[in-house]
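Notes from the 1:1 (GR / supervisor)

We went over the backlog. Supervisor wanted to see one worked example end to end before approving the batch request, so GR pasted a single chain during the call. The sequence is below; no edits were made to it. Supervisor asked that the structure be written out right there so they could see what the output format looks like.
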Amino acid sequence: MSLTRLNDTRFEEVIYDNGEPCLVIFSRKTCHVCKEVVPMLEELQPKYKGKFGFYYVDVEEDKELFQRFSLKGVPQLLFFNKGEFKGKMAGQVEDERVIDKIADVLES
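Structure output shown during the call:
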């Protein structure tokens, strides 16, 4: 997986300390839908290099983060900018929806 993994400490640094515009996918290695969504995000990632971050959290290894946001099921994509939560998407998402949401986040 070429997305950068976040644990609790790195999550705090990236999202709140740096305030980077980004998305974080909460996924599980055994999730079939995650195995479709993650490669799509990996394909989008180079288009936003230096402008928008792409990260993932393994919900089995970092349960606290998953629980902090009261998420139900995976995959869940959470969007952030300047330390603020900007929305989420769940399940099988189309790349056009993700691209549109990234544009919204970058404008906010």
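Supervisor's comment: The radius of gyration is 13 Å.
Batch request approved.
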